[in-house]
UniProtKB/TrEMBL annotation:
InterPro entries: ACP-like_sf, AMP-bd_C, AMP-bd_C_sf, CAT-like_dom_sf, Condensation_dom, NRPS_synth, PKS_PP-bd, PP-bd_ACP. GO terms for molecular function: catalytic activity; phosphopantetheine binding. The keyword Repeat applies. Keywords: Phosphopantetheine, Phosphoprotein, Repeat. Its cofactor is pantetheine 4'-phosphate. SMART domains: PKS_PP (SM00823). It holds the Pfam family Condensation. This is Non-ribosomal peptide synthetase. It comes from Amycolatopsis acidiphila. NCBIfam families: NRPS-para261. One of its GO terms (biological process) is secondary metabolite biosynthetic process. Residues 124-198 form the Carrier domain. SUPFAM superfamilies: Acetyl-CoA synthetase-like (SSF56801), ACP-like (SSF47336), CoA-dependent acyltransferases (SSF52777).
Length: 1198
């Protein structure tokens, strides 16, 4: 039998079938249980293997905790979510050893245990902000409880409801914007954004004009459009029927309405030409807008309903914008014991669909104050409608907005065959001639349209409805022999695009902000029998509309230069307006017992507009979802002039629309190019990737270093990959392999960049495909039966074999784990991965999370690396190119220590520690601090000095890694991914320059380049005209490793990490590795096929000599830095050059004088650009001697 969850009817058998499709599930039963008065779907499963000791509850949101019995909860939940819409995924799973049976052998559903939601039915909010936002999500969407990882749009949210989230969150002290809701989507990420705003001092606020919301307000584009239709617009309004609390009297109602009118300025406005004049709140005659009507309270009485219609019609007649009557309030008073009815009629100049969602809670809030005998205090309004209107007039003249003119002209300047017998004629086709067709979409289709299709296609409900309309119109025209693949539709949006005016906040502003704009929905590239492709095509066309169409109205009505250009064209024969979903969720939870609610029993009490008002379109479609007793219902009214279309034509069109919507709900969905904005890709390519990788959820570009590492992985498809890394965790304690494997799997879920596939697009560019549900490669090896040292030798062989096994970049994940049991309480966990996934900084983050997951902790999916890639895409590459060109200007040759030699065969990597004593390491730290430079600069400077002496060059270049983690990116220090970059370091080793000056100069130049640390090394190299710049690399590992946090995490997991062993390499012949966790430690990684071990050991000793000089004599000139030991010097002078030369028994002065006499014109002394010959030297020294003698200085004076 069907069950009803959150307004949706569900067949439990369908959910059971999905659970049974999982290979780890042998039996499954699904039923609905009430918890805290809320019906929830519970899944009971029996694992396929007999390893169960007890039943365990697992929430759909706590996906990182392992279930008993070997079922991976994250995989189970995501497996089911991949087959069913979100509302059909069980709220909790209960694992049982066996299902309880009745004597007849059937499942005893009554004996199934309670899931015990008190333990946790979801990942609950933990911080204050998360708790506020989770409560607001639940209220606005009308669902039970919301977990911090639940996607706002996947559980029923839309753009209008995002505004309600902003309003209610702000009322509770959490500052977010509607744009934040769209970007963050989940409670966890939205709470992070809110915190970031608080840290940054909050968002900017648009300053109000003098007078605030009071004074002259230019009409917005939609208001000017209404005036353009002519004078018959007095009755053009909106009305709503409300149930009001019993016991309310006229004075109480008047106090409530006065508070609302006082708070919302436009309710006090009058129309003056093409503007509204807003009156001050003080003295405004609210009482004259209210009419009390006595009645019996029998709301279904036909006589009352007829009289109510007459009263409403009369009230609408009293609306008079020019006379300042923008509102009418009809109170049907049934006495103090019966809740009455209140009809509110507002002129459209002052209200739109969003405004009603503001007014209803304000009425209830005001009543609470009145009921308590205090003056009602309503929340403040952010930006007034008057301020917004003036800001839009400025925006309409901005160069950016005017640049949109061609876009809008191309949208309207195209063929659009007539829908009916003729064009719309405003003089003939007025409201009095209008007919309509009402269509109700079947309940099952409505449920799928609201819950399943938006998440499958990543669209809004309105996008889906428009795609169905485009298909229906094209098919309708085809039936009539008209070949037209496109239809021009005039769309309506809420128009509250706050991002257009920085600092604007319209979340609590009442007014008519609606934006109207034309869109051509073109299915030329889509077969009319392919509804899935139609949705994707329409979605992409709508995504190309800038600022959701706001600019069209600005250019059409607020810019006198562009208005005539667009005014020549029709904005479409069809207008479409999706009003969203109306439900009890429109009232905040704390006000739902106040007695104020929508009066559904009066919903059909409606009246017409002015009969002489021109029709706005040949076909006007208004769609709306309303929650009823049987769940949500989508209905639409198709209005049309009877002189252009006939009833049968429109009935046929509505049938085709419903059929198209039904077909769309049966499509599998998929991505479109706008879903992957970080790359440029075509639709067919996305579909090809989706066919090969079913879990595709995003496509990213590669960073410059990722591209380089991937190149090296692909050019050597056999043999050792230099960039394959290995991390070994030494574990003490008994390891639960299933839990540890689940913890590893949870890492892939939390960090989506760990499970990417690297492929090539149609342009030959590499991209990374972000996938869901990628299983972790896992092995277990038991060496406990081997004695020592055979056990350790076997382990080392396993490590080597594992490291030698290359990854296929196109077969994710490029990461695997191996658990090696060495003894009863000692194990080794080997994590092997490709460096293209993450850097050294990420290691401690991963280890901490792994221990956290192992002990049963949870964490939300991190979007950090994607945020980084988005940040990277906005960098100024031209400025970076100029900076690096200036840095390397004049460089004429590379610095190659290996002389261009390469290793033959596999590039095997060896490592040798530099013999750096603790005393020297500490001295270097002190010298760095004293000189005002970092230890990294000291190491780089020493390496430069060594290279200079070894290559006999004063201008040297080597590579260095930089962290690449931008400080302005929130949370960057705890992100996982490959952020580092390799960049050239150029050092001028002038012999006369003191070493200390060399170091400070080096640091200054590196600081100047900080903004450009993300530039591509290959581009930098290309700009120099050299094939390569260097063949040595300096890596200074300086990332945070919180030992206390690691110890705490491992203790909580009852698993001690006693040590960590890591190995990673590069393709360079020689790499200097440095770390300074306590004292400075150095090692040299090298390729034995290029540099022998003895050569590298000799380099290490020479480096120590340079560092000793830096530590002991920082002010010595570069020429004074000695890399030779006394033994080496003696060997060079005596053993390498054993020839004896007779030296005359004369002083140096005598020898120089003799040389001057023999070769007076030869150069004797060089200093910079100045040169002295022997003759000039002797003449100058003679003058100095004479000067000294004349001043009494002689032999023995010094």
């Amino acid at each position: 039998a069907q069950v009803k969850i959150r307004g949706f009817r569900i067949e439990p058998a369908e959910v059971e079938a999905a659970l049974l499709a999982h290979p780890a599930v042998a039996q499954a039963v699904v039923l609905a249980k009430d918890t805290d008065g809320v019906p929830r779907l519970i899944g009971y499963v029996v694992p396929a293997r007999e390893l169960i000791t007890s039943g365990t509850v697992e929430s759909i949101s706590q996906v990182d905790v392992a279930l008993d019995g070997g079922i991976d909860p994250r995989a189970l939940r995501e497996f089911v979510a991949g087959l069913l819409p979100e509302f059909m995924v069980p709220s909790a799973f209960v694992v049982l050893e066996r299902l309880p049976l009745t004597p007849n052998g059937k499942v005893d559903r009554g004996a199934l245990p309670d899931p015990g939601f008190v333990a946790s039915t979801y990942r609950p909010p933990s911080t204050v902000r998360e708790k506020v936002l989770a409560a607001v999500y639940a209220e606005v969407l009308g669902v039970g409880r919301v977990g911090v990882d639940d996607d706002f749009f996947a559980i029923g949210g839309d753009s209008i409801r995002s505004i309600q989230v902003v309003t209610r969150a702000r009322a509770r002290g959490v500052e977010v914007s509607a744009r934040d809701v769209f970007h963050a989507r989940t409670v966890a990420r939205l709470a992070e954004l809110a915190l970031a705003k608080e840290v940054d001092g909050g968002p900017p606020v648009l300053a109000e004009l003098p007078g605030g919301g009071v004074g002259e307000m230019p009409l917005l584009p939609i208001g000017r459009y209404l005036l353009e239709l002519g004078e018959h617009h007095r009755r053009f309004g909106m009305w709503s029927w409300l149930e009001v609390p019993a016991g309310m009297d006229f004075d109480g109602l008047l106090a409530v309405l006065s508070a609302v009118v006082e708070r919302h300025d436009l309710l006090r406005s009058r129309l003056v030409d093409d503007a509204l004049e807003v009156a001050p709140a003080e003295g405004f005659p609210v009482e004259g807008l209210v009419r009390r009507v006595s009645c019996s309270g029998r709301w279904d009485d036909p006589a009352w309903r007829l009289s109510a219609l007459v009263e409403l019609d009369t009230a609408v007649d009293r609306l008079d914008p020019a006379g300042g009557v923008m509102a009418q309030f009809l109170w049907f008073d049934a006495g103090p014991a019966v809740p009455g009815r209140l009809a509110i009629a507002l002129h459209h100049f002052v209200v739109d669909g969003v405004s009603w969602r503001i007014l209803l809670p304000d009425l209830a809030t005001a009543w609470e104050g009145v009921r308590q005998g205090i003056r009602p205090a309503l929340p403040e309004v952010g930006t007034s409608a008057r301020r917004w209107a003036h800001a839009l007039i400025e925006e309409a003249a901005s160069p950016k907005r005017v640049a949109e003119l061609d876009f809008w002209r191309s949208a309207v300047d195209r063929a659009d065959p007539l829908l009916g017998a003729r064009d719309l004629d405003p003089a003939r086709d007025v409201r009095a001639t209008a007919d309509s067709v009402r269509v109700e979409v079947p309940a099952g289709v409505t449920q799928r349209l609201l819950a399943e299709v938006p998440s499958a296609f990543r669209v809004g409900v309105d996008d889906v409805l428009l795609a169905g309309l485009a298909l229906a119109v094209a098919r309708w025209r085809r039936e009539r022999g008209i070949d037209a693949s496109s239809v021009l539709v005039r769309l309506e949006g809420h128009g509250r695009e706050e991002a257009v005016v920085p600092g604007a906040d319209l979340s609590r502003t009442v007014g008519w902000f609606t934006s109207v704009y034309p869109v051509s929905l073109d299915l030329a590239e889509v077969g009319l029998d392919d509804p899935g492709r139609a949705v994707k095509a329409v979605k992409e066309q709508l995504r190309r509309v800038p600022d959701k169409g706001l600019g069209y109205g600005l250019l059409r009505y607020l810019n006198s230069d562009t208005a005539p250009v667009l005014g020549k064209f029709s904005s479409g024969q069809i207008s479409f307006n999706y009003l969203g979903r109306f439900s009890t969720a429109d009232m905040p939870e704390e006000l739902r017992g106040s007695g104020w609610r929508r009066a559904d029993d009066c919903r059909d009490l409606t009246v017409g507009l002015d009969p002489g008002m021109p029709m706005m379109s040949t076909l006007e479609i208004n769609a709306l979802v309303v929650d009823g007793a049987d769940g949500p219902s989508l209905g639409a009214d198709f209005w049309f002039p009877a002189g252009i279309l006939d009833q049968d034509d429109v009935v046929r069109l509505t049938a085709l629309w419903c059929a198209a919507l039904t077909e769309i709900t049966e499509q599998p969905g998929g991505l479109t190019p706008s879903d992957v904005p970080l790359v440029s890709v075509e639709q067919r390519e996305l579909e090809r990737w989706e066919a090969e990788y079913p879990g595709l959820r995003d496509v990213w570009p590669l960073t410059t270093l990722q591209s380089g590492l991937l190149f090296h992985a692909l050019v050597g498809e056999s043999g050792v990959d230099s960039y394959q890394t290995q991390l070994v965790l030494h574990l003490n304690g008994r390891v639960d392999a299933d839990r540890l494997r689940a913890a590893g799997q949870a890492l892939l879920h939390r960090y989506e960049n760990l499970a990417v596939a690297f492929v090539t697009d149609s342009q030959g560019e590499h991209v990374q495909l972000v996938l869901d549900n990628v299983p972790l490669p896992w092995r277990e090896i038991d060496l406990r039966g081997l004695p020592e040292p055979a056990r350790q030798e076997a382990f080392e062989r396993e490590l080597a074999a594992d490291h030698a096994q290359r990854f296929d970049p196109a077969a994710p994940p490029l990461l695997r784990m191996t658990l090696v049991r060495m003894a009863a309480d000692r194990s080794e966990l080997v994590l092997t991965a490709h460096h293209v996934l993450f850097d050294g900084w990420s290691f401690p983050v991963l280890i901490h999370d792994l221990m956290n997951f192992y002990r049963g902790g949870a964490a939300p999916r991190s979007a950090g690396y994607r945020d980084f890639l988005a940040w990277l895409s906005k960098r100024d590459s031209a400025a970076a190119a100029r900076a690096w060109a200036a840095e390397l200007d004049g460089l004429t040759e590379p610095t190659l220590l290996a002389g261009g030699r390469t290793a033959s065969g596999d590039p095997v990597i060896s490592q040798l520690d530099v013999p750096l004593g603790a005393e020297l390491a500490q001295a270097l730290g002190r010298r760095a601090a004293e000189s005002g430079v970092t230890l990294n600069t000291v190491v780089q400077g020493a390496w430069a000095l060594l290279l200079s002496q070894l290559t006999h060059r004063r201008d040297v270049v080597f590579g260095a890694t930089v962290s690449g983690r931008p400080a302005e990116l929130a949370g960057v220090d705890s992100m996982v991914g490959l952020f580092i970059n390799t960049l050239p370091v150029r050092v001028g080793c002038d012999p006369a320059r003191p070493v200390r000056q060399l170091l400070t100069g080096l640091q200054d130049r590196q600081t100047a380049l900080l903004e450009h640390h993300h530039h591509s090394l290959s581009e930098i190299q290309r700009s120099t005209g050299l094939k390569e710049l260097f063949d040595t690399l300096v890596v200074f590992e300086s990332y945070p490793f919180d030992r206390a946090a690691m110890t705490q995490a491992s203790s909580a997991a009852a698993l001690e990490v006693t040590g960590i062993r890591s190995f990673s390499g590069t393709h360079y012949p020689l790499t200097l590795m440095a770390s300074a966790e306590t004292n400075l430690r150095l090692s040299l990684q090298y390729q034995p096929g290029v540099l022998g071990r003895d050569t590298v050991a000799d380099l290490a000793r020479r480096l120590v000599r340079v560092l000793e000089c830096v530590a002991e004599r920082p002010d010595t000139p570069v020429a004074g830095v000695v890399v030779l030991t006394e033994e080496e010097r003696n060997w060079l002078l005596r053993e390498l050059n054993p020839v004896r030369v007779e030296v005359p028994e004369r002083s140096v002065v005598e020898l120089v004088a003799q040389r001057a006499r023999e070769f007076p014109d030869e150069v004797a002394v060089v200093c910079g650009e100045e040169r002295l010959t022997y003759g000039a030297l002797m003449a100058r020294s003679g003058r100095v001697a004479c000067g000294l003698l004349s001043r009494g200085v002689g032999r023995g004076s010094l």
